[in-house]
Design brief:
single chain, 220 residues, alpha+beta, Glutaredoxin, Glutathione S-transferase Yfyf (Class Pi), Chain A, domain 2, 4-stranded mixed beta sheet, 55% helix, binds glutathione
Length: 220
């Protein structure tokens, strides 16, 4: 059997890259990890992701797949014989999972940046309000389920959980407690962290905090 080439090109702090790591680990796919310094990008990155020039990028047998959610879907489909399936088979449930993943993707990161990069108190307070609104909506969507995917980690879980390692930074900058505001969501996050795939893929929250305070570029 010919050995498959699976390489993840990523930057250690990236919540987007963590999604890909979780997906690969959940399916038990062996991969090589290549760190790309996003402050000093290689020309290789522009070859494998010419449109966005960002990480993560997955290389699978010399094909380049970009954009984290697109990569997670690719992994689900390219290794469809491996469980678990991240997206449900029912078209309605599939579209709902994609809807929530898209919602998180479009809103959470941008809102959270205002908490630690906001210019002035007003923007910071707005960022905090927006983050809590999003997290509360997600808590409502989770309801009584163990995971967004039901009994197993699914597409929405993989999309959202990487941000858990940023909760400490948001809370410290914003002076609030996510656990007080969204206890069920934090219980869900702790449940996710019990999975090896998640625990192995998320950066240390204190390291993220130190990293974010250590520079003022609009990068993270
Ligand atoms: N929508 C992209 C995804 O989901 O993969 C976002 C990727 C992204 O923003 N990556 C950051 C990056 O490569 C690292 S967290 N930044 C470098 C840059 O913006 O030039």
């Amino acid at each position: 059997m010919v050995k498959e080439e699976v390489v993840l090109v990523n930057f250690w702090s990236s919540p987007f890259g963590s999604r890909v790591k979780i997906a690969l680990e959940e399916k038990g796919i062996h991969y090589e990890y290549k760190e790309e310094d996003i402050f000093n990008k290689t020309s290789f990155l522009s070859t494998i992701n010419p449109i966005h020039n960002k990480v993560p990028v997955l290389i699978h047998n010399q094909r380049f797949i970009c954009e984290s959610l697109n990569i997670v879907e690719y992994i689900d489909e390219a290794w469809t014989d491996r469980s678990p399936q991240f997206l449900p088979s029912d078209p309605l449930h599939r579209s709902q999972a994609r809807f929530w993943a898209d919602f998180i993707d479009k809103q959470l990161y941008e809102a959270s940046k205002k908490i630690y990069r906001g210019k002035g108190e007003e923007e910071q307070v707005n960022g905090k309000k927006e983050v809590l609104r999003i997290l509360k909506l997600m808590e409502g969507e989770l309801g009584e389920k163990a995971f967004f995917g039901g009994d197993n980690l699914g597409f929405v879980d993989i999309t959202l959980i990487p941000f858990y390692s940023r909760f400490y930074t948001w809370e410290t900058f914003g002076k609030f407690s996510i656990e007080e505001e969204c206890p069920n969501l934090v219980a869900w996050a702790k449940r996710c962290m019990q999975k090896q795939s998640v625990a192995n893929s998320l950066p240390d929250p204190l390291k993220i905090y130190d990293y974010i305070v250590s520079f003022d570029k609009y990068y993270d």
